[in-house]
Structure prediction request, 436 residues.
Amino acid sequence: MNHCQFLCYGLLKIFLKEVINSTENESCLCSYFMKTVVFWVIQNDNHMAWVPENLLMCFWTCFKLLISWVHRGECPNFFIPQNNMFRVKVVGQTQCALFDHLFGLYCKGISCLLLSPTIGKYLYMPMVDRTLTFRTDEGSVIQSCRLDMCLFDELAFVGINPTTLKEFSVLLISIEQIQMYRLSSFQIVTVQIFLCELLEHFSWLLSGQITEELSNKKRAYVCDNSLQMMKLATKIGCASEILYLAMLYFKNGQYEQSLRCLQRAQEEMPKPYVMYNGQVNEEMYRRAMAGVSLSDRMRKCLIYDIELYDKYVYIDELVPEQEAKKADGGGILLIPPLVMLQMLFVLNHHKLGDTVRSQQSLQDLHTLLLYDDGTRVLEDLRDISWQILGICQQTCGDYQGALNSFQCSLQQSPFNAIQRATMFRIQRINDFLMQR
Prediction:
């Protein structure tokens, strides 16, 4: 330790004795914790200038690390990092009270040093006369809402695409091994997303193995396993994951169960704190998610576009679009979650013979496409969105409306490369109308 580092340790020690160690917290922290904080800052912050002119910045950096440790309930021993020195002393109600105390000091800024009689007599006049100015740089700290947005946007580009049962097994074992390590909250959510995608792929792979050649008992067994995998994926995945479960129920002919999933999705997805494509009401998000873990924030607030891979058959109504995408070079068919929600409502009600509700859902989908400002149906995804409206209209018998919707689809940016499917559907409707 150099001279400035010793001064910083001394400053922390005095601050601990005269300010932090109030009556209820006097046995929580000791000077060895302060020394450990300094050691870790020296070790990890290579850009910190340990010079007397920068002493207050050094103190503030150490103080913030201390607050972070108290919040996590973890103070790693510098020489044996696996040893948590807070394990016994800073836990439970004591930990909460200490954190509130430290956070209150933190909110005062560097002026909290004035609470120390020893330090304050040297800093009071310079601070009052503004001959000593100190910027804590808190204005540059990223808000938690923005940080969540950045993380979730990054996770949207991280995925796995196993093709064989062997790959599934290897990936599942790898994820189980990773979960045995001590992970940060960001790492936990990343692993959660990976596991969710893996289970989802596995579910659709099993679903694709259900054929007429299988016995009824075997088909029921495979179908049940497929559903169990998808239910688990829905449990740990983001808020839009339930739409995949609704699709699987629809594919299996379980329309009532599919509608129950859709009702849950309809209740959750329009809420103002829901995050989609980097857009959210930040104030509502902060209020609703205060004190909620990152993992739970992801499950309650995050919705992604629905991804349909060309190697799986999800629902028969979208097979031509998947084939068109595959003929154009393959890839993933992307569908806005609210569009998929309304499509499944229409199809399920139609299968159950509920004409009134299917027409209402059809109208809701049409209204969404006509009046959306680009926040719920992205510009790039309007081709598939109008296509889906046309498919629903065709299913319900509105052939002229379907033709108009397919024409609108052709006028959009061909992001999903489904023009062949659109022309195929237009031709089929025209042939049908000519035969009437």
